[in-house]
Amino acid sequence: MSSGSDRRRHPRLPVELHVEFRHLGRPQETYADIARNLSAGGVFIGTTVALELGTELTLEIAPGPGSRPIKVRAEVVRVEEEPVGTGSKVTARTRGMALRFVEVDAAELQRLVTLSNTLSTEPK
User: Fold this and answer.
1) Using CA atoms, how far apart are residues 12 and 57, in angstroms rounded to an integer?
2) Which domains does the chain have, with CATH numbers?
3) How far is residue 39's CA from residue 100's CA, in Å, rounded to a whole number?
4) What's the pLDDT tens digit per position in 3-28?
5) 25 dihedral zone (left: phi>0; alpha: psi -120 to 50; beta)
6) Measuring CA to CA, which residue among 120, 80, 121, 99 is closest to residue 42?
7) d(CA 17, CA 28)
8) Are residues 31 and 19 in contact, defined by beta-carbon separation less than 8 angstroms?
């Protein structure tokens, strides 16, 4: 069985970017968190929000002050949890969600790729 990194078509680069997302079925609910890594194919958001696999979202990734947000549609492909001790009980807490881009304008995709290469926290 292949690991997740073996199946990826696009390399993911570590970043820290403000991102807002909305569930397409409940657009009045807006969440804001931090993108932890980014590629031309998707993004991992550090969040305590856990949406169901397959849920479609609209994302607005903030490239920086004074720049217009990069807008894309994505779907939840993985929710990561971590165990948390609460007294005598261990429960799980959502650590983040992996999202796959499903609809991206070519110009927005180029902005994403340029942004991820520019802001990567990975040593050069």
Assistant:
1) 20
2) 10-112 (2.40.10.220)
3) 10
4) 444 455 667 778 888 999 998 888 78
5) alpha
6) 99
7) 22
8) no
